[in-house]
Amino acid sequence: MRKNKRAIILICKVIPLCLVLCILTFFSDAMVYAAKGVSSNANVNEIGGSTKGEVQDPDDPENFEFNITTNAGTSSLSATLQMVLVLTVLSIAPSILIMLTSFTRIIVVLHFVRSALGTQTTPPNQVLVGLALFLTLFIMSPVINQVNKDCVQPFQKGEIKQEEALNAGLKPIREFMFKQTNRSDIKLFLEIEGKNAEITSKEDIPTMVLIPSFMISELRTAFIIGFLIYLPFIVIDMIVSSTLMSMGMMMLPPTTISMPFKILLFVLADGWNLIIGQLVKTFY
Fold this sequence. Notes:
Number of helices: 9
Largest sheet: 2 strands, antiparallel
Shape: elongated
Radius of gyration: 33 Å
Number of strands: 2
């Protein structure tokens, strides 16, 4: 019986091994056949100005030419580098657009609201980011429509060139940023760049100066709004702390008692309506 069991176990181990070897052998033969087919097709080709049907040695360096074949034919290396550059810009485009819109102010204020309430993970980050994105689309919709009208549609129809389309699309975004940017921040970056004396109008301000100025102004405004949001909740914390101290409950954490009162105050005052409404109005 023991010999039969050993034989069965040995057979169970050998059969899968044989199957794996057969599969590997099949794939190796297929790869060799495919490689032979590719090399035979590559030998009979028009390389380096040779005549049609002439067989040339692919290892000869004189017959070697670097081409990149796409669905549209053969493209040069410069076009490929341009495509790589475009893909790189597209990969960082979400971060650029977030910093050029109202997203920064909205998400910072929403995080201040959550911290003031004392709820560590409620609402979760996904909910706050989603709300900030849709509020950003709502606020930026006039700018998006203007960019589509002045830049995207004429460029698709071939009415304007690439540089003209870029300038036309950047103009509404610059106007939006100018309305929300503090002039002292623009002056700061102009002084750092050394071009303060050369600027006579807002059209002369470079975009590379306007973007960081806009970001700093957005953070300042968001922190001011966050401070105003914190004030009523700090009053509740002070009242709860003084009450617990007068009752001799010094070992009881005040935040444990104050958080339900904060949530109750926020709900009774319709806090989300007040904060979101006033926050959106700051952009108009």
